[in-house]
Amino acid sequence: MAEFKKANSVGEWFDQRLGVVNFSKVMMSEYWIPKEINFLWAMGMILAVMFKILLISGIFLLMYYKPDVNMAFDSVNYTIMQEVAYGWLFRHVHAVGASVVFLIIYIHMFTGIYYGSYKKGREMIWISGMLLFMLFSAEGFSGYMLPWGQMSYWAAYVITEIFGGIPLIGDELVVWIRGNFYVADATLTRFFMLHVLLIPLAILGAIVFHFYALRFPHVNNESGEFFDYEEEAEKFKAGNKKGSKVIPFWPVFLSKDVFVMGIFLIFFFYLVFFHYGFAMDPINFDKADGLKTPAHIYPEWYFLWSYEVLRGWFFEIAGISGKDLGLMAFGFANAIFLVLPWLDRSPMVKPANQRPYFKYWFWLMIADLMVLTEFGKLPPTGPNAWVGFGASLTFLVLFIALPFITKAEAKKVGGK
Amino acid sequence: MKEFKILAVIVALVGITYYGIEPYAHSVMHPEVAAADFTFKDVKNVDTTLAGNVENGKALVEANCIACHAIEAAGHPAVMPNADAAASYGVVPPDLSSAGRIYDTNYLANFIFDPVTAMHLEHKYTPDSGKQFPMPSYNWMTPQEIMDVVAYLKSVAPKVSEDKEGHKATFEAACGRCHNMKYAGIEATTPTDNLKNYMGATPPDLSQYIKSRGEHYLHSFINDPQVLLHGTSMPRVGLSEKAQEEVIEYMEEVGDSKKAERESLGLYVMGYMVVFALFAYLWKRKIWEEVH
Ligand code: HEM
Predict the structure, then answer these.
(1) Count of domains forming chain B
(2) Is A47 helix (H, G, I), strand (E, B) or coil?
(3) Do B28 and B130 reside in the same domain of the chain?
(4) pLDDT tens-place string over residues A309-354
(5) Which protein residues touch ligand 1 with a CB less than 6 Å away?
(6) Are residues B276 and B207 in the same domain?
(7) Would you call A77 an interface residue with chain B, using a CB distance cutoff of 8 Å?
(8) Closest-lying ligand 1 atom to the alpha carbon of residue A112
(9) Band of the pLDDT at B257, cuts 50, 70, 90?
(10) Same domain for B234 and B91
(11) Which terminus of chain B, N or C, has less C-beta within 10 A?
């Protein structure tokens, strides 16, 4: 056993045993972040805090929630919302938080795309981020089922039904997922397990992985500049703080994050207390009824764009049914962001607006996603169906064209 | 400044998307409908300017109505238990104690004259449906006599307090023969099986309808269910604007009981966050002064 001498302070006592001094250097005061960043670089920390808020509010809800088709609705809407002291607060925080976290995820993702933070060494950051996106999607979907309202039921019905379109195994797969022929008690209890145990565990792991993936390539910066971190860190440590291109994670980077977070939380709590309808759909305050289909079924807002990619294909083309085409497009849409680092063939790491061709692609993609989101909510009738089809087709074309567009850009800028 | 420009772009994009999927999409899915009419001007068989005679009204009510309806406030208990009444009429005839207070005068007079048209249930009680509304039409009464009945009902109606208790009384008198309100422990006076038979649909438990339908929808729906749910068997109940507001108020008191707590706590929390952001800003400025 190593030789331990008597510690002179509590700090030293811990340092001897856990190496806290070195640890906090590596993790905090000598973890280097570029100085040239704007508030968009605070989104990652906001996400980490949102996850914590969701976890804590979720634990409180878990104390009173009952995962049973006969009790779930009242346990949420009566016990938690009206009986338990501040139960309503935890529910509002949790439901609004689950919705707003996606807004921040999208801002975070599109920031990454805009600044080209997914390539030239940052591929694993991107992949781990997409993994988080998928896990959060699964978490959002499973959580939405738990209050067992009309939208819980019918969104679960429609989304699990999608898997029925997979060739050969589709029908069996749907039954396997639901644990029954229709959405029933078994479906609720298994999604409950996923929502409160398996997916949160996986998310925790994925967050650690995401943070670790940031370590070697380092965070990108506003101009996409590559520089020598060792050298800049030495400058900083030598006291040339103004001349150095880096700042330490603690306290410099975090002081900005905390401020941005403060502003964000004002907005967040405004939504929690005064404007929560977008996250707690009114229809979900009707108890689930498998015999009564609501007039309009739509998923939560953050799934609307991919839902519309699915729905946009409503007629047969070349002998393939609209349903199958939609399913293929849907599969494409959900997988394509994952391989983005390899679709972008241009070596430029620059803000999109400084890239000659990519800038058009970027803003077109944003516009298309907005159109898809909008028409994913509107009833798919008359001209709406055609707009949906056009936007869905545009989505596919955009991503198929990306390698060619960026290749041309690479040629134009000559490998810079 | 650049950061403000970025923020402006994000706010604009998020704002447009929000407008599209919330206010705009809802206006497409739930188009505006005709405004609620609390004068019930479509029914005009009875001249409601006539002044009613309470004494005469009392005699008419005792001769015609209390065979079916209780009027506890005037000392007339129900003639039979609810289960028997439901079995006889399909639905338990409501206690008329507060009828003079909660129903609009024009509606009430015309309802007595001809219940089916006043309730907008002509589509259900067509001549060849073989169905007959359980309460007879009193179209044989003169307008004066009908106004006498109305005057009597108004004279016996007890005043209620302007609070949850009062709102509850209005709710029970107006909706209580059909609807449960589980979260307030209220069960419809008519047993569910009878109701389903009588109405062709089970009236839903209204505990959370303030949330699922919202005040705006209820305001129009209660005034005339046919406008929003064409062909429904729920009758137009003919509440005065004030009574309807009390009913909606009650639905909110039961379905959203923490509203006041939510709104006052909300201000405190937001105030706290503003102070937090302010200090965070000062701290950030102090730290960044060294590096900029
Ligand atoms: C949902 C949980 C997530 C958490 C907690 C999280 C957290 C973070 C943090 C703390 C950073 C460093 C600071 C910053 O640049 O903002 C970061 C960077 C990054 N994240 Fe995430 N993230 C999440 C999801 C995602 C998703 C869904 C993506 C997209 C696929 C993604 C892609 C990236 C990229 C590309 C960077 C590097 C940004 C740069 O180099 O400038 N992350 N993340």
Answers:
(1) 3
(2) helix
(3) no
(4) 999 999 999 999 999 999 999 999 999 999 999 999 999 999 999 9
(5) A 41, 43-45, 47-48, 51, 105, 108-109, 112, 115, 117-118, 122, 125-126, 129-130, 132-133, 136, 207, 210, 214, 219-220
(6) no
(7) yes
(8) 35
(9) very high
(10) yes
(11) N
